[in-house]
Specification:
16% helix, 3 helices, three-stranded antiparallel β-sheet, 7 strands, 133 residues
């Protein structure tokens, strides 16, 4: 009758085989339901997960990459280059003293797979002592 679409999705998971390893990764990110579409698109093995982080300006941020580490693993920023203050720490991308300009979509790639992390940096409006760098 079409009143229970969730059964169909679970059915496709059960027969998906390779997707079994990925289901656990999606808990606690943006809610389980929004992840179904991402997993379905992964027939070629390029499963794209997305995650969103927010930070206040001036903090240090670690953008996590949940892909398996590999020699060809790299981070890039969509539509631009990584900030000079960015370094790769194991699989994560650490950005020191983030600025509003660092906001955007960062892409972690490893072994042909991709993962997006969207960083939102908020300008702090609270009274702060000016820092002279």
């Amino acid at each position: 009758s079409g009143s229970m679409p969730s059964l169909n999705q679970q059915g496709s998971f059960a027969s998906g085989g390779a997707f079994g390893q990925n289901i656990g990764l999606n808990f606690g990110q943006e809610g389980f339901s929004s992840q179904f579409g991402n997993l379905d698109a992964g027939d070629d093995g390029a499963i794209i997960e997305s995650q969103q982080l927010s930070s206040s300006q001036g903090a240090s941020v670690d953008l996590p990459c949940r892909l398996a580490p590999s020699d060809d693993m790299k981070w890039q920023k969509e539509g631009g280059s990584l900030p000079d203050r960015a370094t790769q720490v194991r699989t994560a991308l650490r950005i020191e003293r983030v600025t509003v300009e660092d906001s955007g979509k960062y892409i972690c790639t490893s072994q042909g797979r991709m993962q997006y992390v969207t960083l939102m940096v908020e300008r702090v409006t609270a009274k702060q002592k000016p820092e002279i760098s």
